[in-house]
Specification:
Blueprint: H1 2-18, H2 55-64, E1 69-71, H3 78-83, H4 94-100, E2 116-118, H5 125-134, H6 151-157
Antiparallel strand pairs: 1-2
Length: 161
């Protein structure tokens, strides 16, 4: 038994020393090359990026792309037309459409499919308040912040763009 124990210890010693990694030989340094000194090129002036548009300018651009006319489809009313996001996103602003199209609308409760109405895009805050009051909106007759309004009115109300 002693023989087997000594033999096992001897084998372990041989294996552990035999498997040890040899120290790596240091890599020879590459031969030094003489550095050629070249004059540094003059730095090119970086092109200046065009100024980023402000939030108001982006809003005004998007507002200018909104439709200025609407063709009535069967089942629509002025309330629904004013409620469309691309129109006013506020149903209480329907009187603005009615006032702009009085020559085509005899009764605001009776509009017909195929009629083409102008959607006013430039108006004052006082006109908005008057229209909302006429439509039965709650006081203080201010439009909701989600309403699609000209940038001047949003700025007058102190809302962001």
């Amino acid at each position: 038994m002693k023989r087997y124990l000594l033999l096992a210890i001897l084998l372990l010693a041989i294996v552990s020393f035999g498997c040890a990694k040899k120290p790596a030989a240091p890599e020879p340094e590459p031969p030094k090359q003489e550095a050629k000194v070249e004059p540094a090129p003059a730095p090119k002036p970086e092109p200046t990026a065009p100024p980023q548009p402000t939030a108001r300018e982006i809003y005004e651009q998007n507002y200018s792309m909104l439709p200025t006319t609407h063709t009535v489809v069967k089942g629509e009313c002025l309330w629904w037309i004013a409620e469309y996001r691309q129109v006013y996103n506020d149903p209480f602003m329907w009187p603005l459409i009615y006032k702009a199209n009085r020559d085509k609308i005899n009764n605001p409760d009776l509009i017909y499919p195929g009629q083409v109405f102008q959607v006013p895009r430039s108006y004052q805050l006082s006109e908005v308040k008057e229209s909302r009051q006429q439509a039965g909106a709650p006081k203080p007759y201010l439009p909701p912040q989600a309403a699609t309004l000209p940038a001047d009115i949003r700025a007058e109300l102190g809302w962001s763009f």
